[in-house]
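User: I'm designing a mutation panel for NADH dehydrogenase subunit M and want to avoid disrupting the core. Could you give me a predicted structure to guide residue selection? Please restate the sequence first so the numbering is unambiguous.

Assistant: Good idea. Sequence first, for numbering, then the predicted structure tokens:
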Amino acid sequence: MNGSFLLTLIWAVPFLTALVSLPVDRDDHRRIKKISLAGNLINLLLVIGLTFAFISAEAEHPAAAGAKLSQFHFTGKTVWLQMLNIEYNIGVDAISVLMMLLTAIVIFCGVLASWGVEKQAKEFFVLLNVLVAGVYGVFISLDLFTFFVFYEIAVLPMYLLIGLWGTGKKEYSAMKLTLMLVAGSAFILAGILGLYFESGMNSFDLQKLAQATFSPEFQYWAFPIIFLGFGVLGAIFPFHTWSPDGHASAPTAVSMLHAGVLMKLGGYGCLRVGMYLLPEGANMWMSFFLVLVTINVLYGAFGAIKQTDLKYITAYSSVSHCGMVLFGFTALTFAGIKGGVLQMISHGLMTALFFCLIGMIYGRTHTRTVSEMGGLMKVMPFLSVAYVIVGLAGLGLPGLSGFVAEANVFVGAFANPAPLYRFCTVLAVLSIVVTAVYVLRAVNGLVNGPISDHYKTLTDASLIEKIPVTILLFCLFAMGILPGWIVELVNGAVHPIYNNLMR
């Protein structure tokens, strides 16, 4: 199969899945769910095939360590709007492929975790599939205008998914999330248009723009706009406040997809657009952003300690761990940037499993308050053990994915000899202690102690619920025990970005 056609097929399948669902009777919930599950299973298989094809292509044509330009495979280009030189221009490097694999795993597990959705199930799964199509489109786009269109397709459905199917302060949370992300999108669009006109090429082509020479004056104002624009979706301080409310109100699959994948679009954009195209601006502003993301890491961890709701604990934890992604990027070292990419993958798997388990536990106990639980290990051993394991991944236990990612981030950040970087690294490392406090306290309150009488009749996970939990647990262990192939792929993709920063 032609590589560019495969990339197109991967984002088109979720759209087609949504279209196939539209004529189905809205009361036929089971058929709607089967269609969505089948579509995302097909996509999972396609992305796995793409991953193997990419590894083969890299083996035949490895990226040069000294390369200044990213090596993209399976490229294809078609003129979209000739007048503005906008193209449907696609291709992938290792970061793109790994993020697509993460997306495919999380959405497949999310559909299974949402098997109990009954309220307007057709509309729910249609919007979910449209959102996923946008995410795939972002990861394959080499034209910045097309990139932005897919980015908006991925972000905007969140308003309805939270506002209609959420819980708690869902309308407030959906509105807050949408307004803040739209504001971030305005910054991104301004930066992209600046790149288009300042390059003198009148092109949105990422590879052409990477060869352009932008003046230092332009980079000094364009970089912070782009970095902040994407940083809003990555929950950068102080524009992170939408995240805890949004995650706490979102339904299970939406929380899984949003925290597991969608927030990673922020870090991906910061790296792919901001740091790669505007290296002088990055070097100028990174000390400032280092301070912000250090606050992210600490604020999120201390914020999680104060929470009693399982979803809010995980949401604040995500603020801290997503801060760790940007912390690795701001280190401006090869190991730090590599660690930031690995953290995107690790946190995506970990937080998807967290929200998956919380949804299943809430569906049985009808509460997310830790103090109202206890002793669940006696009646829900599978779900309880899974929660313990993912908690240990969250605090960076060796053998799980969190250790691999955070070790690279901290080593990379400390490798920068500037005193500010080393001081901030020490603070970020201390956040692990805080993480251990809120993780172990939540685990202890959930699974240990006496069990309430009205919880004694609860059942453990069903077969259809065990499938997504098992898949995500396997991925956490696989990345923690055998990270070599992922690290090698990331190395090849990070070299050109790092070399551009050092030029």
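For picking mutation sites, this is relevant: The CA atoms of residues 309 and 392 lie 19 Å apart. The first strand starts at residue 73 and ends at 81.
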